[in-house]
């Protein structure tokens, strides 16, 4: 279920707004049929799984299910941090490039003899630094999140290519690659376990802490949140740092899985992350969303990609369908918001 707090439904003067003035989340029309947006997407996910199992005998095998979960881990982990950002009304387009940069710098240091621990720490620090730069630019300098993260995306991509002359870095420590490619408990990928832990930790932070309530409040109405004593700029800064932490973990996973840091590592991840977040019901207008919805969105994208691959669908068509999913989800969000806004304008004023 999408989460929200009371302060997100207050006007600039702090007065409570009527329930129908709350901002809708993406897919709310579908959600009305099943009780929530997340429930609607979950039903769609189940239907798609049934169809794919009928079309491909290998879809529901244990190996393929593990493959879907493992391949979705990078997007899933990154989407946890991205959900925090989007709930505040922001967006982070730099996550894919930051994954590549953090992985490349960490791999170069491991190659230079700093070991798996040193390389992992540096990978995390680089990713957090990118998040901090985004946070300072948005919260402190008041720049538009779209422009800021688009710029940091370009800078990170350039630095990744420059760091090793556009070449990949191989021969990484086995203990490092184990986190991306190893398995435990009879074949469960470690990356899947890490993803579950990140989602659980993110869910607790978002729904069970004062900080989580502040995240929803900032996204619902920044001015009302400020009047309520919430440090809006600090919350905004911290959600981008959280996004950076998730990027760092995802970078360790993807480099470990491939066994090398590549110049194109993380390319395109940002699109799948945004798609998962919006499809899962988090509103791009802020104030509404849930990590449960994001998880369902991640699984939906992973299942579709895997199923289309099993059916030998052209990869270019798969990319088209990913982008189409984003378009449809954003369209639902925009149409619903416009519809509610028009309804508010037509509401008669009470004397």
UniProtKB/TrEMBL annotation:
**Membrane topology (UniProt):** Multi-pass membrane protein
Q: Where is this region: Disordered?
A: 1-22
The listed locations are:
Cell membrane
Per the UniProt record, one Pfam family is BPD_transp_2
Annotated keywords: Cell inner membrane, Cell membrane, Membrane, Transmembrane, Transmembrane helix, Transport
State the CDD domains in the record: TM_PBP1_transp_AraH_like
TM stretches of this protein: 29-53, 65-86, 93-110, 181-206, 232-255, 267-285, 292-310, 316-335
* Cellular component GO terms held in the UniProt record: plasma membrane
Q: Name one GO molecular function term.
A: transmembrane transporter activity
Q: What is the recorded name of this protein?
A: ABC transporter permease
